[in-house]
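Design review, sub-item: ligand-bound model
Attendees: FS, YL, KQ
YL presented the inputs for the iron/sulfur cluster complex:
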Amino acid sequence: MAEKGQIYETRPLEFWAKAKELRAGWQQSIESTETVVGQGNILAIADWSRAFPAIGLVEDNPAGSMIASQSSPFARKCRLASEIRGWGREICGYQNTCWGSQFLGYQADGSPFPYRKFVVPIPCLCDQHNKRGQQVRDFEPVPQWMMDQCVYLGPRDAGREEAMIEHRAYSMLRQINDIERLFGQKFDDEKFQELLTAYSLVDLYSRDISTLMAQTKPTPLSIKDYYSVYTLGSLTKIDPQETVDFWKLVRDEVEWRAQNQIAAVGNERFRWIEAHPPSWHFLKYYRYMESYGAVCLGSQYAHRVTAGCLERRPDGSIDRREMLYYPKDTPLETREDGVRVCLTPDVRYPHHHKMDEYIRHNAIVEFADIFQADGALLAGWRCGVGCTLTRKEQAMRLRRAGYNVMFYEGSQPGDRTDLDEKRFLEQLDTWMETQGLEKQGD
Amino acid sequence: MITAGIDMGMEYVKAVLLRDGEAAGRGIGLSGGARRESAARAALEGALKEAGLSAGDIGKTVATGKGKFDLSFADKQVTEAVAAAKAAKRLCPAATCVMDAGCDETLVLTLDGGGKINEAVLNEKCAAGVGGFLQNMARRLELSLEEMSALPPVAAGGATVNDGCIVFAELDMLSLLNRNVPVREIAAALTDAAAVRVCTVLNDVTVPATDKVVLLGGLAKNKAFVRALEARSGISFVIPDHGEYGGALGAAQIALDT
Ligand code: SF4
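KQ shared the predicted structure:
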């Protein structure tokens, strides 16, 4: 169907039906995890827990944002429960809401909170992310294994990264052994290899998708569409082969759209990027911007499966960012190989947009350049340090590099408390109108 | 041709009429945030009366301001930024920057020689309500806003209030009152805190303008505030007559131009 002010042909996405099916399957898997929890199995905070078949994963971030989207009154109750326990109001909304539900002992639907039996806090620059493990242990005495924070500053140093991988590989192998011993759980090595192979394929396909989004005008896929699939196979536990097949399906369709100039937004006139997660409860702003012909390409966060997937080479060309795998091209045969492969992107994480505050503000300019953006919309979250750190600096650098920048404010991506939706849309009007863009059809 | 510009502000609605591009009348109506349509009619009536015109004479009406979509008889709506840029260029053709500081919004725009907007920076929420904040504080101190605005400067080293959060500032004000600090000193401290908040918007501009910065909006006529803002920012503002009508004037000019 033709849109107002349409310049390019556009079509509905065909992979959408399959995405819905997979999401429904994921929902079911969560429900069955809850049943398993009721039988006394273990829930953990650890990425690699997926290879322990009887271990479920309850991470604060998705749990907190899910609560907030299910029930605002309950989320408010959770925040208060967390505050009464002594946590500050400025704590990240994901954490505050999830922790509050834990303190109350139940979830939005009244079912019991899935208490964690052990924790493996994931290192993060953000103090609040790091406290995820601390508050679980403060609440009740459960074992904790630390993932060491391996950070270095300055230019990339492959030798240092390899040393870090060795250190972390040792710690992780020990964690796996300890968990097997303490909880009587068997780590499924075969499954582990299978998962890692699947992830690396998903990574390749999603990098292709990011490249196509970045380099094709008009973009064949908007971030609004991408967000409806991007957790499939990363945050969610679904069948590895099914996941790989799905991502291939998405890549093929996006590639075809790019080759045939099928636009995500038929009136694309302005391309913009963001920084970090959007306000999950108010994704309407993407569609609102499309009425101006403004299409969102996403953020470094959104392309995080492929974080920093593209780079500008010294000769000016754009290519896929080289990933350090250790040992390079080693076949995946043993648990140790798997652990190293699994840790590699994690060790490189300090050179990721979120972790290194020194490269953070430069990386966003590179991202805007590669994605051929005209402007950037940055969120100033009031709670949660990690998601807002250096944001003003980023804005300054983007503006100096010629990108038009607008801000909006809210308490946090997963928290409705402080986002004035009307004001937000008015700010977008200002952003567009001051650049001479008008709503199509007006 | 007669064109009308109506600035549907949160506290006041302002109307400006242009006759063949020349200012013919101005009017103001108090909306208090809730009665915007009736305040607009009152403002327009005032402007029509001053211009010696009737409503039927108006060829085109453009609305701006937070309540711009509440005005049933507007032909077009434009954002406050676009209206402010237009007004600034009209009032000061050499303007390089415009700041519009009102009851509920503070915005700063940098302009190129032709009046095109290079950069638009809006306030963070706390700097938003600075005009409304000063109005409430005047009430608390049993002063009119005009009286508070006309107070002479106080010597440095006097009372201070929190300048990071206007809610905290209000509590600090109560505490100063309890300590019998003179009202004039408290008023100066509150005004200074408001200036600091507004400065944060100026600070967000990539290439700060220090020359030919036009100040529009209700706060442009608050002398004490302008003094504090100039001291804090180091900028000597261009303050046009009737700067509080800036948004309405810009809207009326857009009605003429489009
Ligand atoms: S603010 Fe961001 S980085 Fe910090 S805990 Fe929240 S989501 Fe994580």
